[in-house]
């Protein structure tokens, strides 16, 4: 089924069958919203602005034994597929405990893995078996390059939700998408440039489920206070992703540690950055976790 869909995507341009009016409008520029300007805080009385698109800056993987899952800069153009087309190769980020056949650790994470996958219309994502991966003629490096390009295409289509502190400063940004590989946008080489002006050269990302990414500043963000919320969302998710915190920097992706539910001294949710609802944007406030579970925050 997936192969048939790809054939449709790359069929001849249907513009030739369009009406005269459609032909005239085909050359008009797209609507604004991806102006290339850096991300700026959303005014309390305004809706979140569309994602800006800064110039890409490569994010190379740290040199290691070759098993590091941080992708090198992709040579595949981010616009290789039509908008909305299913991705034939993408990265699924998921918990290690699922023990998926082709899984490898995400960077130096202990509980989060990256798995070769493809989008489909039935399950959302289908992981490659070892045989399918070999039949596709892909090396792990080629897979990472294609997954990075797919992540970039999705990232550029997403709209950030900005949450502010009481003093008006940005507390964190939330990225959400119904696409099942949304968590993998952290692999895109454009991810760091997109948030650099707002948060600096070191970011922290939290991915409780495969559709959600929280972005904080490494230097000033209070991401540790999000521990109870991350544990709750992870436990409630149909497709959980990770309870680990990762740093995104020019050096690549690095695991900072994990939030756990075993006797840590987690901060109260009341001390966490305000939810977008308190910061005059949408989304709900983090609810208090069970008294039997506490989080141990990464450093």
Topology:
Layout lengths: L1 H8 L10 H7 L63 E6 L8 E2 L6 E8 L5 E3 L2 H6 L4 H16 L5 E4 L5 E7 L14 H9 L3 E4 L5 E6 L9 H10 L7 E6 L2 E7 L41
Antiparallel strand pairs: 1-3, 2-3, 3-4, 5-6, 6-8, 7-8, 7-9, 9-10
Overview of the molecule:
The chain is α+β, with helices and mostly antiparallel strands and 299 residues long. Helix content is 19%, strand content 18%. The chain contains six helices and ten strands; from the N terminus they run ααββββααββαββαββ. The protein starts with a helix and ends in a 41-residue tail after the last strand. The model is unreliable at 1-26, 28-74 and 263-294 (pLDDT under 50).
* N- and C-termini, Cα separation: 45 Å
Strand order of the largest sheet: 5-6-8-7-9-10
Measured on Cα atoms, how large is the radius of gyration? 20 Å
Overall average pLDDT: 74
Number of strands: 10
Helix content: 10-25%
What order do the helices and strands follow? HHEEEEHHEEHEEHEE
Helix segment tally? 6
Largest sheet: 6 strands, antiparallel
Q: Which parts are unreliable, with pLDDT below 50 for 5 consecutive residues or more?
A: 1-26, 28-74, 263-294
Strand content: 15-25%
Morphology: globular
Q: Which structural class is indicated by helix and strand composition?
A: alpha+beta
List keywords for this structure.
alpha+beta, six-stranded antiparallel beta sheet, four-stranded antiparallel beta sheet, 10 strands, globular, disordered N terminus
């Amino acid at each position: 089924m997936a192969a048939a869909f790809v054939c449709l995507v790359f069929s001849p341009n249907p513009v030739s069958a369009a009406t005269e009016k459609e032909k005239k409008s085909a050359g008009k520029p797209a609507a604004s919203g991806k102006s290339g300007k850096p991300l700026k805080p959303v005014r309390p009385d305004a809706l979140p602005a569309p994602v800006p698109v800064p110039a890409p800056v490569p994010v190379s993987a740290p040199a290691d034994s070759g098993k590091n899952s941080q992708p090198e800069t992709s040579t595949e153009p981010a616009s290789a597929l039509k908008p909305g087309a299913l991705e034939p190769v993408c990265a699924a980020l998921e918990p290690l405990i699922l023990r998926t056949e082709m899984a490898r650790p995400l960077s130096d994470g202990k509980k989060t893995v990256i798995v070769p996958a493809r989008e489909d219309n039935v399950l959302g994502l289908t992981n490659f078996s070892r045989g399918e991966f070999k039949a596709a003629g892909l090396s792990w490096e080629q897979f990472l390059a294609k997954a990075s390009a797919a992540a970039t295409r999705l990232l550029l289509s997403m709209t950030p939700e900005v949450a502010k502190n009481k003093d008006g400063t940005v507390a964190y940004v939330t990225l959400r998408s119904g696409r099942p590989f949304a968590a993998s946008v952290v692999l895109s080489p454009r991810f760091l440039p997109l948030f650099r002006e707002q948060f600096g050269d070191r970011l922290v990302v939290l991915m409780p489920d495969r559709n959600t990414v929280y972005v904080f500043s490494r230097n000033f963000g209070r991401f540790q206070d999000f521990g109870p919320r991350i544990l709750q969302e992870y436990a409630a998710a149909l497709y959980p992703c990770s309870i680990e915190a990762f740093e995104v920097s020019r050096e690549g992706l690095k695991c900072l540690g994990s939030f756990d539910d075993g006797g840590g001294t987690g901060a109260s949710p009341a001390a966490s950055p305000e939810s977008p609802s308190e910061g005059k944007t949408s989304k709900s406030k983090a609810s208090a976790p069970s008294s039997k579970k506490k989080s141990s925050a990464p450093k």
